[in-house]
Write a structure and sequence with these properties.
single chain; Beta Polymerase, domain 2; 18 strands; six-stranded parallel beta sheet; alpha/beta; about 15% strand; 5 domains; DNA polymerase, domain 1; five-stranded mixed beta sheet
Length: about 575
């Protein structure tokens, strides 16, 4: 691997910037769309796209053609593509930030810049305060108010921060249940990113059918947690909740509920691929139905399964709808039977009050796990809190708890730190007495992370690598690992690689977990719970596993502890 190869996130950022600036300059929309699709594809690819491009293989990826591949090579060799440098010279750097404010698309941003001479966010604020923006046709006082409000809230300098799935999912579920309880409701479902269990979301989407759409939208905007009503019509409404989350409701006729739910669940890439395939067979898909082009007949569908069946596909679970090969698999009848939350039989990475940041005792964690229907729990408190004889004291407490539990078992485990030299910070003679050892990176993410993880995998007592890259979504990118090498070595040694269900981790990411699963790595879905309540993060981890195309057989903790123990020997 070429040491200087840029990270996928850095490549994707350049293509996003190229798309923004090209759009402001009014360039052809198909080029802008191509740059954005390339950025998304690069971010979602597990392997180094720069390395693939240098080998002439990047164009084998969807959405990466020869032209895009050449630009990736240019970035890898020079640090920046000439096309981006050229546009940066033409457009003031902060003008692209205008598009991140409500109501300001690329054309409006360009008009403000060119017609008013406004090129910075500070100048934009001044223009709004002095009521100069309303001088542009099509813009008014409301636009100025929105701009000033957004700037006051810190919008503009960077991309809007997406919310974590773990925060949005409970909110959208509460909304769905509140709407279902209304007498006029027939069908109600979340849609968009949360339904696909993507790790982050921008807005929360709900699709419903009703005997009285106006009554249902009125009920929606009057719910007690609504802070602001952004828009309210008979069939559509948008609100902001007290936590600052935006929720959109669309009420549609029952006969096309499946069409709208499928469309608004997305993803955009999945829907584009679906439409393109349909067009080749004389069909035109929209959110309102499928048109037979030759006759003009419009077919609508009550549910998504009927829609997919009409188009010639098996039903595609929402988590797979990312244009990652699911259409081909669905047409060929080769979609995997995805793992389900109910398949889990134990938790293999969690903490108690023996870790300073743990909130519950061993017995409390065990009782809560048993209440979830689990058969076992691997207690993996942080190694640095278990020194000077404390780990032996913990074992005594585990034995005591096991003596009081009926048909449930707490296993001796630890979460060891992978030090800067690749050595785990627990002596081998202690590791040998444990049932389950998780080793994780916690510090020095920029210091030879690949070699350190490989060294930990080489330790015969290490059973699993925890939260592989150490990322914190929206806060820390995590270690820049050579995923291919890590997965290959995990296969050779039989070491597990976990999916960590913490909302701000979800690490491994879906693309990496899919690669690991396809290679034959066993993947436990864990919560890294530090409290009883956090055991519920298993649902987020299972969502990530499903996005990674994982089956029950590929997820380690769908097995009994006896089966896992046999597999270790």
């Amino acid at each position: 691997m070429i040491a200087a190869s840029p990270r996928n996130t850095d490549l994707a950022d350049q293509f996003d910037q190229l798309a923004d600036l090209s759009e402001i300059l009014g360039e052809q929309s198909f080029r802008v769309a191509a740059y954005r699709r390339a950025a998304t594809r690069i971010r979602d690819t597990a392997s180094s796209v720069a390395e693939l491009a240098l080998q002439g293989k990047a164009k084998e990826l969807p959405d990466i053609g020869k032209t895009i591949e050449a630009k990736i090579v240019e970035i890898a060799e020079t640090g920046e593509m000439a096309a981006l440098a050229k546009r940066r010279a033409e457009v003031p750097v902060e003008v692209a930030s205008f598009m991140r404010l409500p109501g300001l698309g690329p054309k409006t941003a360009a008009r403000i810049w060119r017609e008013l001479g406004v090129s910075t966010l500070a100048e934009l604020q001044n223009a709004a305060e002095s009521q100069r923006i309303r001088a542009l046709s099509g813009l008014g006082a409301a636009t100025e108010t929105k701009i000033l409000k957004a700037l006051a809230e810190g919008a503009g300098p960077s991309e809007p921060r997406r919310g974590l799935l773990g925060k949005g999912l409970p909110v959208v579920r509460e909304v769905v249940e509140a709407l279902r309880s209304h007498p006029s409701a027939i069908d109600v479902s979340d849609a968009g990113s949360t339904r696909r269990r993507r790790e982050t979301f921008r807005d929360l989407d709900v699709i419903a059918t009703s005997t009285d759409p106006a009554a249902l939208t009125a009920h929606f905007v009057s719910l007690p947690w609504v802070l602001e009503v952004v828009a309210h019509g008979e069939t559509k409404a948008t609100v902001i909740d007290r936590g600052g989350l935006r929720l959109d409701l669309r009420v549609v006729p029952p006969e096309c509920y499946g069409d709208l739910l499928q469309h608004f669940t997305g993803s955009k890439d999945h829907n584009v691929a679906l439409r393109e395939d349909a067009q080749r067979r004389g069909l035109s898909i929209s959110e309102y139905g499928v048109t037979v082009v030759e006759t003009g007949e419009v077919k609508t569908f009550r549910d998504e399964a009927a829609l997919y069946a009409f188009l010639g596909y098996a039903y595609i679970p929402p988590e797979l709808r990312e244009d990652g090969g699911e259409l081909e698999a669905a047409r060929a009848g080769k979609l995997p039977h995805l793992v389900k939350l109910a398949d889990l039989r134990g938790e293999m990475h969690c903490h108690s009050t023996w870790s300073a940041d743990g909130k519950a005792t061993i017995e409390e964690m065990a009782t809560a796990a048993a209440a979830r229907g689990y058969e076992f729990l691997c207690l993996t408190d942080h190694s640095h809190y278990l020194r000077e004889g404390r780990i032996e004291e913990q074992w005594a407490e585990i034995d005591d708890v096991n003596g009081r539990l009926d048909s449930f078992r707490v296993l001796r485990g630890v979460e060891a730190n992978i030090n800067a030299n690749g050595i785990v910070d627990v002596p081998d003679d202690v590791l040998a007495q444990l049932d389950w050892v998780v080793a994780s990176l916690h510090t020095s993410f920029d210091k030879n992370p690949t070699e350190r993880v490989l060294a930990a995998i080489d330790n015969p007592h290490v059973d699993c690598i925890g939260h592989l890259t150490g990322r914190r979504i929206s806060r820390r990118h995590g270690a820049d690992l050579d995923i291919d090498r890590v997965i290959g070595h995990a296969v050779e040694t039989g070491t597990a690689l976990e999916i960590n269900g913490q909302p701000d981790r979800l690490d491994m990411r879906d693309a990496h977990a899919r690669l690991a699963g396809e290679a034959g790595v066993l993947i436990p879905v864990n919560t890294d719970a530090h409290s009883v309540e956090s055991l519920a993060y298993a649902e987020l981890g299972i969502g990530q596993a499903r996005r990674a195309w994982l089956t029950k057989e590929q997820v380690l903790n769908t097995r009994s502890w006896v089966e896992i123990e046999v597999g270790k020997t």
